[in-house]
Design goal:
Elements: H1 2-15, E1 24-33, E2 44-46, E3 51-61, E4 66-73, H2 78-81, H3 83-92, E5 98-101, H4 108-116, E6 120-123, H5 140-150, H6 153-156, H7 163-183
Parallel strand pairs: 1-5, 5-6
Antiparallel strand pairs: 1-3, 2-3, 3-4
Helix pairs in contact: 1-7
Length: 208
C-alpha cells in the first residue's frame, strides 16, 4: 500500500513544479464520529470537539499530500499520539526535517521530536488579538487535506472494525484524490496564493 500510495504523490509534486523530495510537512488531527458497529474499545470522547468516536492524525507535505496517518480513540491527546505519525514520517520520508503543528502539539512533543528524531516541530500560534475564525499560516493545508478525505462518504464517519483498517481507507481515499488531480487538466495542487518556484529535474526545491 505504501508503494502504491507513494507513486502518484511524487507524480503530483512533479506535475505541479515541485521536486519529488519534500523538506517540510504539517501535522494535524481530526475527530470523527463512529458507527454503532465500531468496537467500544477503539473509540472515545473528544471533550474539546464534543465528538464521540476516533481521532485521525495525519502528516502531509507542503502541498497537503499524505505522508503518514495514525488512527486512535478520540479521547487521546494530540501531544500523546503525535509521536507515531512523526516517527513514521522520519523513517519513511527522511528528507522532511521541519513539521508545522498547532498549539495542541506543543510541549513535550516538541522536545521529543528534536531530541529523538532530530526534527524541528514548529508550533503555529494564534494571534492573541484574534477574534473568530481565521486561516492559520501553513496549517490550513492540513485542514484542506481533511476536507478532501471527508468528501468520501466512507470517511465522513468511521465505520471500520479496527484503527488499522481506518488508516488503510484514508490511504485509499488519498490515492483517489491524487489520481483525479493527475487526470484533470489544469487542476494542479497549489499551496497558496503565491506563485510556485519552478524547478528542473536536476534541481531541488525546499518545501518551506
Amino acid at each position: 500500500m505504501g508503494r502504491i500510495h507513494g507513486a502518484p504523490r511524487g507524480q503530483v509534486r512533479e506535475a505541479d513544479g515541485w521536486h519529488i523530495e519534500r523538506s517540510a510537512g504539517l501535522i494535524d488531527s481530526q475527530s470523527v464520529g463512529t458507527a454503532d458497529t465500531v468496537p467500544a474499545a477503539t473509540r472515545g470522547f473528544d471533550a474539546g470537539k464534543k465528538v464521540k468516536g476516533r481521532k485521525r492524525f495525519i502528516v502531509t507535505d507542503a502541498l497537503g499530500l499524505l505522508l503518514a496517518v495514525h488512527v486512535v480513540a478520540a479521547n487521546v491527546q494530540d501531544r500523546d499520539s503525535g509521536r507515531h505519525p512523526l516517527l513514521w514520517t522520519r523513517l519513511d520520508h527522511p528528507s522532511v526535517r521541519r513539521i508545522w503543528a498547532d498549539q495542541g502539539f506543543a510541549g513535550r512533543l516538541v522536545e521529543w521530536a528534536a531530541q529523538t528524531l532530530s526534527r524541528d516541530l514548529k508550533i503555529v500560534r494564534k494571534d492573541p488579538d484574534q477574534r473568530g475564525f481565521q486561516v492559520q499560516p501553513k496549517r490550513w493545508l492540513a485542514e484542506r487535506t481533511f476536507s478532501w478525505l471527508t468528501a468520501h462518504r466512507r470517511l465522513a464517519r468511521d465505520y471500520e472494525s479496527s484503527p488499522a483498517r481506518s488508516e488503510t481507507m484514508v490511504r485509499l481515499a488519498m490515492i483517489g484524490v491524487m489520481v483525479r488531480q493527475l487526470t484533470r487538466p489544469g487542476t494542479a495542487v497549489r499551496p497558496g496564493p503565491r506563485p510556485l518556484v519552478r524547478v528542473t529535474p536536476a534541481k531541488s526545491c525546499a518545501d518551506s
